[in-house]
Design a protein that fits this description.
This protein is mostly helical. The protein has two domains: 61 residues, no CATH class; 44 residues, no CATH class. It is 44% helix and 0% strand. The protein contains five helices and no strands. The chain is globular, with a radius of gyration of 17 Å. The termini are far apart.
């Protein structure tokens, strides 16, 4: 049986140490594409945040997690820290930082 699923291939060797980004190259791109490529550019940060927020609204992702309970936090934080995609995050995060993020969504 064929299943249409997305799998993440994670290999630390695929994560660049440095990215050279020319903001002039991105100035004529669509907002969504700019957001996808310009997260590290301060000038494009607002466009990126706006695009992600709009995408969340478009696909029905809630802005708050009202059903999240205090007792859920340890599991969620540990799972986020242990996620296979964690090495690709822009910066490392501690359990405490994950907890702070989840609390803002409660």
């Amino acid at each position: 049986m064929e299943r249409k699923r997305k799998f993440v291939c994670v290999d630390p060797n695929d994560i660049p140490d440095v990215a050279v980004v020319d903001p002039d190259m991105m100035s004529s791109m669509l907002k969504g594409l700019t957001a996808s490529t310009g997260m590290d550019q301060a000038a494009y940060r607002k466009a990126a945040v706006d695009a992600v927020r709009q995408l969340s609204v478009d696909v029905g992702i809630p802005t708050k997690l009202e059903k999240l309970k205090e007792e859920d936090l340890p599991f969620l934080c540990e799972s986020a820290a242990a996620d296979a995609c964690a090495p690709g995050n822009p910066r490392p995060a501690t359990i405490e930082q994950f907890e702070e993020m989840f609390r803002k969504l409660m």
